[in-house]
């Protein structure tokens, strides 16, 4: 017995030591970040190579220390170290291992530590892959990136410390929010943060270029891969969140215009605009001022999203925290970095003089229109998201802005963007003729109109949403194919295989946007819903399918109790599948969740949700027929894959051939 007690005490001591070392590593990383944010910046101004060279080992040390700190917190969750307050509040000994690990970032403090880990990772990547950058620019980029890290290290250490200990640890924890105990949401935050925080690199490049007094084609090429990587991760993160909401919440929808959903969507829109704008800087040395502004605002909207999620000023099912002190701290970070960057932007206006001249009808003009539409769309989402807060502060009225506003205000811009995108992608640089550029797209237009006519002919309700969506989606997909084929010239299929990956990536991403359009319009126009009380053994129909509730049982899971139904789906006399909708209750958290039973198909989903047992017998059952639902996430995957293809193009990964010895403007001394 004394030996067992001794082993337990030793184990607890070791856990405590690892936690304390993680806390110490976090503080040490903070100190390294302070040094890195000052010394290389001074070195670049004075042209002192030794001081500039400090940036790279400091960035590596900062990342390694933060990684150790994050690993220590993960160890505390995995081993159920209930001497750590955060583990008590967000874990439980019976929780499956996947959710013990995901519980590390399933809360405010741990998610901010993940945020800083990714921030330092991007800084380290800039030191690993930035060997082709001019030494002064590299030093300034790493210094600005570290200055952002300083702010967030201070935020964590002084307001959101994940390593706080309890003097009297409880026997067990309070469990993680049951809504977060899902594979889709376990991986959603890391991808989203890779996108959010990845935009810090575009900010660092923009501020470094402004300090240096140099914005040219080389800068446009250098900033594109970082923007592309952030946009790619944001796309995956948003798609995972949408997919989770679809099957987990039981509402049957994929997007609800929730403030936290909007918080990730706004930087995605700005990042998409920045991607296209940086192309003009690289190819034509035009739109420099606008591109720098987008690079600053992209990260600015990431910070706005962080404020929305963590301040508690706007209510959301996704919100992490509602501490006003934390909200004020994030608001201060936003004010300092955005205010400082925009002040520098105004002071350096002279170095961003455009060189390239282009006509009103050209690819440059099409990209400008693309940027305007994306930026205005982002502004519309921002106004709709922040307006309830403004109304409450200014007028003392509690208002809510829902889907009807966003659908009416946002959709027209996306329709115009979809119409222009294929034509803009195929136009030549500098000067174009609309008739000549449009000629190759005539087959795509005919196909899109045919699909629109077919949709109109077969639909049961006379709404234009479905046919117009089918037209736009087909137009985008066919336009991407025409754009790709037009680049082969007379080489045909042989040349097609030798096209740069960036060309393939652009076409695949644009086609992915088209498929998302098809999925969204099909789902919203032709969805069918049925709500009823169903007795055991009873059959009912929806959209030509026959559903029967065969039985309902109480099932015990790893850390939950489930009321699980068995629903058979038939088409005529043929059994299509058996789905298991559930209503789960997590005893520790005392919170119910819904698990939809979904029969996935290429052209449709049959979606079933089971509710409470009714007083007169039977169960409340909601069923949906959802045409083209999976096309939404299939298109998102294609968009992300297109971004990955472009990122793998050597011309984007390595800024070879883009550097120019002659700077635009006079470098700052």
UniProtKB/TrEMBL annotation:
Localization annotation: Cell inner membrane
Annotated GO molecular function terms are: heme binding; heme transmembrane transporter activity
Membrane-traversing stretches: 24-45, 112-130, 142-164, 191-211, 223-245, 265-281, 293-321, 327-347, 368-390, 410-429, 441-458, 464-486, 507-526, 628-647
Q: How does it sit in the membrane?
A: Multi-pass membrane protein
Keywords, in A-Z order:
Cell inner membrane, Cell membrane, Cytochrome c-type biogenesis, Membrane, Transmembrane, Transmembrane helix
Give residue ranges for domain Cytochrome c-type biogenesis protein CcmF C-terminal.
331-650
InterPro entries with a match to the protein in the record: CcmF_C, Cyt_c_assembly, Cyt_c_biogenesis, Cyt_c_biogenesis_CcmF
Q: Which residues form a coiled coil?
A: none
**GO biological process, any:** cytochrome complex assembly
Keyword DNA damage assigned: no
Its GO CC terms? plasma membrane
- Protein's UniProt keywords contain ATP-binding: no
- Domain Cytochrome c assembly protein residue range list: 105-311
Q: Which domain of life is it from?
A: Bacteria
Please report which protein family the annotation says this sequence is part of: Belongs to the CcmF/CycK/Ccl1/NrfE/CcsA family.
Function text:
Required for the biogenesis of c-type cytochromes. Possible subunit of a heme lyase.
For this protein, the record's NCBIfam families field holds:
nrfE (TIGR00353), PRK10369.1 (NF007691)
Q: Which PANTHER family match?
A: CYTOCHROME C ASSEMBLY PROTEIN-RELATED (PTHR43653), CYTOCHROME C-TYPE BIOGENESIS PROTEIN CCMF (PTHR43653:SF1)
- The protein's name is Cytochrome c-type biogenesis protein CcmF
Q: Which gene encodes it?
A: ccmF_1
